[in-house]
Amino acid sequence: MLKALFPLCAVLLALLWSATPAPAARSFQEVWDDAVPLMSKGADIVASGKDVEERSWGEILTFRDPAFTRLLEECFEVMADSTVTESVHELDALRRSSAGKRAAIAELQKKAVSAPSSSWNPLTDTQQSIREDVVRLRQEIADNEERAARLRESIHAALQSRGLPVSREQVDAMLGAVDGADTASVMAVAENIKAVQAAIERQLSQPGASVELAQSYTGVYMMCRKVYAYAVELALRHIDESYLKRLDGIRAEAEKLLADARAMMARAGEDDKRILAANIPANQRTLDAANLYRRYLERQKAHLRALLEEARLSAEVAVNTYRTVRAGSELLALMKRSEADFSEIFKFQPPSLSLLYDEQMRREFETITERLRAE
Fold first, then answer.
1. Residue 357: pLDDT band by 50, 70, 90 thresholds?
2. Is the N or C terminus of the chain more exposed, i.e. has fewer CB atoms within 10 Å?
3. pLDDT > 90: what percent of the chain?
4. Residue 274 in 3-state DSSP?
5. Looking at the structure, do residues 154 and 170 belong to the same domain, yes or no?
6. Of 161, 190, 225, which residue sits at a domain end?
7. pLDDT tens, 145-156?
8. Do 336 and 313 belong to one domain?
9. Cβ contacts of 25-30, under 8 Å, gap ≥ 24
């Protein structure tokens, strides 16, 4: 009996872990308090004139990234925090929770085959207790879906309030795609950087703002540009090194299953032929959806590459500005000229996925998304 409980206990533990709520998004003041000291440290490394990509012997021996890279990573974690990313992470947690509950239902249904109708032992699964557990889990899945729908609405409203002209369908496409969290993180970084720049501009515009303050904020501004480039590069790297590789595995599997099914048709009996006749279009739909998914990710890559090229150039200009320690008025002028750059990220819309509005194709797209997330 105890052995029989182990698989179910593992599933229930997974449910508890996956349902852990995401931490609440921090206020801008908290982001500022955490980010500015890190950015000042990064600016000091740049000011030292050393190669920021070079690792010390200690870093080499301990397999660590250079100190500057680690600072960039920390800054990104701070700057990628917003109400939108919080909601996206909660959506992901809800998806994992529902997947775990569906797995638990499948385990219960398998146990129902041999479960007794009643038992004196309260720890024994009976037909009645299994039915009650299945009903409860299905209700919890429904509750998750209801919460997810509210989150999608709130994300759509939040993006619109920031001036992003996106439809509800485009938001759903972004959230349903495997790179939705990366997109949200890049947008959050841009949003927080705009707020940092605005705070710097307000302080430097006040009477009595010192040259020293302007010089210090030149370093913070430079790091903002570096963090933005890092965020875009990270999203691009995830597409190249993670999502596309996994997708190629799914495509290869679908191609092999399709070819095998067609090859077996010639020698199969009538009953098996009917099964293979259903498998062939099913694998073809998977293959079509995977090909569509690849086109989607390739378009995202092209857009991110263009953003990255612009971000790297702006970061180089900011480094040059920091190293020459320009006057505060020149820093303000530079910031005002670059403000539109961060506004551009809010035009980062997923390409139209009108093909996905075919119900079967949409389901295949969602299935592949779940597989990509799970691997």
1. very low
2. N
3. 24
4. helix
5. no
6. 161
7. 999 999 999 988
8. yes
9. 25/81, 25/82, 25/83, 25/85, 25/86, 26/81, 28/192, 28/195, 28/199
Which among 81, 88, 292, 117 is positioned nearest to 193, based on CA atoms? 81
Spatial separation of the C-alpha atoms in residues 195 and 29, rounded to whole Å: 10
Contacts by 182-186, CB closer than 8 A, 24 or more apart: 182/234, 182/235, 182/238, 182/239, 183/235, 183/348, 183/350, 184/82, 184/84, 184/85, 184/88, 185/76, 185/80, 185/85, 185/231, 185/234, 185/235, 186/231, 186/232, 186/235, 186/345, 186/348
* Burial degree of 270 (CB within 10 A; 0-12, 13-18, 19+): exposed
**Extended beta strands in 135-259, E state:** none
Confidence at 341, pLDDT banded by 50, 70, 90? low
Write down the number of H helices and E strands in the chain: 13, 0
Give yes or no: residues 33 and 95 share one domain. no
151 and 98 inside one domain: yes
Closest listed residue to residue 173, CA positions, set 191, 156, 154: 156
**CA distances (Å), origin 183, targets 86, 145, 169, 340, 347:** 13, 22, 16, 19, 11
**Which of 140, 161, 182 is the endpoint of a domain?**
161
Cα 347 to Cα 310: distance, rounded to the nearest angstrom: 15
CA distance 241 to 370: 18
Q: 88 and 71, same structural domain?
A: no
User: Residue 328: which domain range?
Assistant: 26-80+162-374
Q: Of 163, 150, 154, nearest to 190 (Cα)? A: 163
| Residue 99: closest CA among 17, 170, 211 | 17
CB 229 within 8 A of CB 304: no
Which DSSP string do the residues of 40-92 spell out, in sequence order? HHHHHHHHTT--TTPPPHHHHHTTPPPHHHHHHHHHHHHHT-SHHHHHHHHHH
Query: Using the 8-state DSSP alphabet, how is residue 23 labeled?
Result: P
Q: How many domains does the chain have?
A: 2
> Which of 51-55, 223-227, 268-272 shows the lowest mean pLDDT across its residues?
51-55
Model confidence pLDDT, tens digit, residues 241-253: 889 999 999 999 9
246 and 125 within one domain: no
Do 58 and 72 lie in one domain? The reply is yes
